[in-house]
Amino acid sequence: MDYLAVLGRQKNISLAELESLFDNVSILSPKLATFKFTKSSPVNEAGEPDIDRLGGTMKLAREIKNPLEYIIDDIKSSGYDGKIVIGVSDYSKKSSPRTSQRWALDLKAKLRKTEIIPGKKPSVRILANKSADLSTATVYHNHLCKKPGHYEILHFANRWFVGIGVQDIDAYTSRDQARPARDAKVGMLPPKLAQILINLCGPLPKNATILDPFCGTGVVLQEAFLMNFRPYGTDLSDRMVEYSERNLDWITHDEKPDFLLEQGDATNHSWKQPIDAIACEGYLGPPMSLAPADIKMKDAMHDCKAIIVGFFKNVYEQIASGTPIAMAIPAWLRPDGSYQRLNILDELESLGYNVMKYKNTSQRDLLYYRDGQVVAREIIVLRKK
Ligand SMILES: C[S@@+](CC[C@H](N)C(=O)[O-])C[C@H]1O[C@@H](n2cnc3c(N)ncnc32)[C@H](O)[C@@H]1O
């Protein structure tokens, strides 16, 4: 059975995340990819891919043969007798709000004629389409993939899918903004990107230890805990270690679960074993609000490279062959709009790491940024040879 992912804004990163966890990932259209899951793929309680742990996917859906039959069967098996709510997202090439609305009206008319529960014709509400595909916020706020009797039906080139999850906008915002210890100077790693970094390490067993050697305020650690992994954070700064501790206490409700925090310089620290995977945002250099002058950028590049490559050299003897490392490293906006990379992949290969390869994208394209952002994040994914 095929699953469908509606990709996030940074499509290449979304594709790499899907490839890291699932099989047969194929691009259907600029916004869509299909995939299958394997035994080792993470699933939710319903045994399906879990939208809440995929930072790069906006919506998830499962392929169905026919939306009318699907809805009738689902209502029959759940015994739901309230109002049916349906939204249609048409992703086909020539789609428009009108094509989506037509599909929705057609479904409504057919359902209204069907006595799903004997003696009772169902009441059906369809959502208005401002665009051919419903926005994440519309699907989320109308509980389309959550409540019984509420459906998002997705259409693409004669294929039909039913929504099984949409990104929980409020949960991400609250994890990001309600943390007790925040520090704008060390950067604000979005929780979504922290999830992506962890997922880029591939499927990992429950309770696997995830090391973040540049843990800062602990966003990666917090997401690792929520994904049932064991967080292990270190940072050069005592203050950051304390911030991570406060944030972990907050997210774990002071249950004192199994997490580890230490002060340490990533270029010479000796970590405790085991280390099953490393997911982190490395040192990004000083915050900048304008594209830097050449000299300022060269200084920043030099400092960041020394710390990041120094970390790779130091950790090499401390991890087993095959250990995955997913890291966000800085890239700087240039006056012509391009981004200057650190260009360290060849050096890391020569130190004894394999650079991950993807079927649908390339490492060069894993750049995470908002329009005009001066310090962007390049995502690198490697495994010790
Ligand atoms: C971009 S921040 C990471 C922010 C983090 N992702 C968070 O959730 O807040 C980089 C961190 O690297 C730390 N750092 C800088 N040089 C370091 C080194 N040599 N060893 C370990 N940590 C270092 C800084 O103290 C800072 O907290």
Name some characteristics of this structure.
single chain; 385 residues; alpha/beta; VC0802-like; Rossmann fold; 9-stranded mixed β-sheet; 10 helices; 17 strands; 30% helix
Overview of the structural elements:
The chain is elongated. The chain has helices at 11-21, 67-78, 97-112, 136-141, 169-177, 191-199, 219-226, 238-251, 294-316, 345-351; strands spanning 3-7, 23-29, 32-36, 57-64, 84-90, 124-126, 150-156, 159-166, 209-212, 230-235, 260-263, 277-281, 324-333, 339-340, 353-355, 367-368, 375-384. Strand 5 (84-90), helix 3 and strand 6 form a beta-alpha-beta unit. Helix 6 (191-199) crosses helix 7 and helix 7 packs parallel to helix 8 (238-251). The protein has 385 residues and is α/β, with parallel strands linked by helices. The chain is built from ten helices and 17 strands. The protein has two domains: 3-167, VC0802-like; 182-384, Vaccinia Virus protein VP39 (Rossmann fold, 3-Layer(aba) Sandwich), CATH 3.40.50.150. Strands 9, 10, 11, 12, 13, 14, 15, 16 and 17 form a nine-stranded mixed sheet that branches. Strands 2-3-1-4-8-7-5-6 form an eight-stranded mixed sheet. 30% of the residues lie in helices and 25% in strands. The structure holds S-adenosylmethionine.
